[in-house]
Write a structure and sequence with these properties.
The chain is an alpha+beta fold. The protein has four domains: about 80 residues, 3-Layer(aba) Sandwich (Rossmann fold), CATH 3.40.50; about 70 residues, ATP-grasp fold, A domain (Dna Ligase, domain 1), CATH 3.30.1490.20; about 250 residues, ATP-grasp fold, B domain (D-amino Acid Aminotransferase, Chain A, domain 1, 2-Layer Sandwich); about 170 residues, OB fold (Dihydrolipoamide Acetyltransferase, E2P) (Beta Barrel). It has 17 helices and 36 strands. Strands 14-13-10-11-12-15-22-20 form an eight-stranded antiparallel sheet, sandwiched between helices. Strand 16 and strand 17 form a beta hairpin. Helix 4 packs antiparallel against helix 5, helix 12 runs antiparallel to helix 13 and helix 13 crosses helix 15. The protein is globular and about 80 Å long. The two termini are about 45 Å apart.
Length: about 625
């Protein structure tokens, strides 16, 4: 058995591998870039090695540095996780040539399945059903257009080296084919250095069905049943579940059997996934499910398979890489209940899923389900890598119960101040088509406007927020102390402004017994002028002001943003100044009121972009306060 393991990855998958390795008594080595120096996977491992600057191309994608780190630390084996170098056959071969154990499929299998046209031909030869289409050598635009006509529109142009939705174009009409082909080839060349394309029949009501397979060096191959990954946005998976809804035993046997034949065709070892496209217009039928591609690695969505089978796939990978056979036979594997996984990202669905970068001040989970994460409260979501916060995985006796558990976990989880896709996920799994298992890969696109609509905070919720702020005199005075010139009279009556995402509304506060009843869930933000409202599973900051307009910044990570559009009328600091918590930084005039932004903690002024007289819009970075020990 492997005694020491280097994980050539980061984030949640590195933490996931470390967890299993520790249970098996295997020493672990992490690698990290500049951006990940304080990351959770670094602190979780027994040892960690710095491998370069923050960009992945200068760190996690440099195979020589990773192999050198393994040699330096005495690691016997390298686990690539997924992404980065996990499906790089040359890197796998270099690991083996260095005398190390590669925890994954052999390089020949990675190469065999790496190009979609070659893999499709291989599957045809193995008797695995493939999507009708053209994958010939003649790549002239005229030939490709002619083949598309023979196949029948709509068709899908697909780069043979593509993945993750890149180098793919659906074409509905012959007159659109030429432009789509040029665009697809250009994107494929830029992304993969290979612009060769194949043409496939576009499947109406397509469902994405994939089968988890596993092979060992003793010639054994088993499947661990199927997953449904049809809920996608621009070919990127959002929700995955196992088993696939509506899959009967006969169809399951046919599809899983085809997956095993596919794996045996390349003498496959370790974990892998055979992906199929299904015409789901009239339910799942073995005659309408075709091979699409093979992923020669562990998948992001592997936890749902683990939940329904009780198998630890990472443990199997480590055992098989050590030369052991697969621990069980096919007939010993069975499906137990239903599992569903949601990918929680730091992104803003209301703004085109724009990544939300910065510090996670609040990260709370109810932990009633499985949480796979590589971050924690206080961590930074970096612009250099995928902004995934966590995978939230629920398991229950049946599909509806699993969905209910997932929804409950998402709704009670809290992330702040970064935007997340939580409310989008809650709406998605609550969608009537999803609940009724009427799934296809275009569902999110059709429902996107509804799924991504920004939740509006009601006047009642804001009134409750104001009551929260002033629920008793002593507590309020303590909260208000940092707010310059902000004091209430003994009666606590008056006119106040509450700002939510740059929108400011004015309320007259007149305390009554009814006014002290809170129907909404609020929590402390760490900022006396700001409270957090849990709305649709999303923490929304509500900032308090009064008719004299003073307030202070609510950016606990030090980035001071304009709370609303306005004009800067005063800048009280200069670049490099030392400031104390509560010191005045910038005064903004907006809506005929002055808003004073103050330092959230002791530190030094950096990145001062605010200038007197400038007009600024909502959310613009004005200045950053860096803690003194951070330089």
């Amino acid at each position: 058995m492997i005694k020491s393991l280097l994980i050539a990855n980061r984030g949640e998958i590195a933490c996931r591998i470390i967890r299993t390795a520790r249970q098996m008594g295997i020493r672990t080595v992490a690698v990290y870039s500049d951006a990940d120096a304080k990351a959770l996977h670094v602190r979780s491992a027994d040892e960690a090695v710095h491998i370069g600057p923050s960009p992945a191309a200068e760190s996690y994608l440099v195979g020589e540095k990773i192999i050198a780190a393994a040699k330096q630390t005495g690691a016997e084996a390298i686990h690539p996780g997924y992404g980065f170098l996990s499906e790089n056959a040359d890197f796998a071969q270099s690991v083996i040539d260095s005398g190390l154990i590669w925890v994954g499929p052999k390089p020949h299998a990675i190469r065999a399945m790496g190009l979609k046209d070659a893999a499709k031909q291989l599957m045809d030869n193995a008797g695995v059903p493939t999507t009708p289409g053209y994958l010939g050598e003649d790549q002239s635009p005229e030939t490709l257009a002619s083949e598309a006509e023979k196949i029948g529109y709509p068709v899908l142009i697909k780069a043979v080296a593509g993945g993750g939705g890149k180098g793919m174009r659906k074409v509905d009409r012959p007159e659109d084919f030429a432009d789509a082909l040029v665009s697809c080839k250009r994107e494929a060349q830029a992304s993969f250095g290979n612009d060769i394309c194949l043409i496939e029949k576009w499947i109406e009501s397509p469902r994405h069905i994939e089968v988890q397979i596993f092979g060992d060096s003793h010639g054994n191959v088993v499947h661990l049943f199927e997953r449904d990954c049809s809920l996608q946005r621009r070919h990127q998976k959002v929700i995955e579940e196992a088993p696939a809804p509506g899959m009967d035993e006969a169809t399951r046997a046919a599809v899983c059997g085809a997956a095993v034949r596919a794996a045996k065709a390349v003498n496959y070892e370790s974990a892998g996934t055979i992906e199929f496209i299904a015409d789901g217009s009239n339910g799942l039928d073995a005659d309408k499910i075709w091979f699409m591609e093979m992923n020669t690695r562990l998948q992001v969505e592997h936890p749902v398979t683990e939940e329904i089978t009780g198998v630890d796939l990472v443990e199997w990978q480590l055992r098989v890489a050590s030369g052991e056979p697969i621990p069980v036979k096919q007939e010993e594997l069975s499906i137990n209940g239903h599992a569903i996984e949601a990918r929680l990202y730091a992104e803003d669905p209301a703004k085109g899923f724009l990544p939300s970068i910065g510090r996670l001040d609040v990260l709370d989970f109810c932990n009633d389900v499985r949480i796979d994460t590589g971050v924690e409260a206080g961590a930074q979501v970096s612009p250099f890598y995928d902004p995934m916060i966590a995978k939230v995985i629920s398991h229950a006796a049946d599909r509806h119960s699993a969905i209910d558990r997932l929804k409950s976990e998402l709704e009670c989880s809290n992330v702040w101040p970064l935007r997340t896709n939580k409310s989008f996920l809650v709406r998605l799994i609550d969608n009537h088509n999803v609940l009724n298992a009427a799934l296809d890969t275009g569902l999110i696109g059709r429902e996107q406007e509804t799924l991504t609509a920004k939740p509006r905070v009601s006047d009642r919720a804001l009134s409750d927020a104001l009551n929260w702020f002033v629920r008793d005199q002593a507590d309020f005075d303590q909260r208000a102390e940092p707010m310059i010139g902000f004091r209430m009279n003994s009666a606590r009556r008056g006119k106040y402004t509450l700002s939510v995402d740059g929108e400011t509304r004015t309320f007259c506060y007149d305390p009554t017994p009814e006014g002290q009843m809170f129907d909404h869930a609020f929590r402390e933000s760490g900022d006396p002028a700001t409270q957090l409202l849990n709305l649709d599973g999303e923490l929304i900051a509500i900032t308090l002001g009064r008719n004299d307009g003073t307030g202070h910044a609510s950016s606990a990570d030090g980035a001071i943003l304009s709370p609303m559009p306005g004009k800067i009328i005063a800048v009280a600091v200069a670049e490099g100044d030392a400031v104390a918590k509560g010191d005045k930084l910038v005064t903004l005039e907006a809506m005929k009121m002055e808003h004073t932004l103050t330092a959230p903690f002791d530190g030094v002024v950096r990145n001062l972009s605010a200038s007197e007289g400038a007009q600024v819009s909502d959310g613009v970075a004005l200045v950053e306060i860096v803690a003194a020990d951070d330089g």
